[in-house]
Amino acid sequence: MIKHALRSFLILMTVALFVPGPALAGGADIAGSYAVAGWDPGSDPSGPKDYEGTVGLTAWGEAWKYRGEMDGHVYVGVGFFDESAGTLSLSFTSEDGSEAGVTVLKATGDGFSGKWVFAGVGNGLTGREIWTRAR
Of 99, 98, 55, which is closest to residue 79 (Cα–Cα)? Predict the structure, then answer.
């Protein structure tokens, strides 16, 4: 049942990528590398971080490709940046396909901050992340 729900979720996210949408106004420059500090679902984000890593964003037509490495795990995905709202929305999966989910981040002065959730596990609890542009 979880595999079917996960497969349906990933198919919907993939189809959404091919629905025509407006081009990025002004060509937002969010491409690049970011350092990540994160908290697992259910953790207190005011406490010590649960993990850290790096993320790379690469322009892909009107969308973005994502590749992240967190504590020895590699995640890849695709998503959209809504420049007018300053919101980056990404679907992700672990490189081995065992984990998948969605991340929604709000642009900050030097990166992004927001929530993520796994699909099919974790009882819908959200994790938190802060991305800081690598210099």
Answer: 55
Burial of 120 (C-beta count, 10 Å sphere; 0-12/13-18/19+): middle
* Candidate CATH numbers 2.40.128.120, 1.20.120.450, 3.40.50.150, 3.30.9.10; the one for domain 32-133: 2.40.128.120
Sketch the domain layout of the chain as residue ranges: 32-133
Q: Is 4 helix (H, G, I), strand (E, B) or coil?
A: helix
Distance of alpha carbon 46 from the chain centroid = 21
**pTM of model > 0.70:** yes
Contact 91, 76 (CB under 8 A): no
**Closest to 6 measured CA to CA, from 100, 92, 123:** 100
Tell me which residue of 76, 55, 62 sits closest to 16, measured CA to CA: 62
Q: What is the pLDDT of residues 43-92, one digit of tens each?
A: 999 999 999 999 999 999 999 999 999 989 999 999 999 999 999 999 99
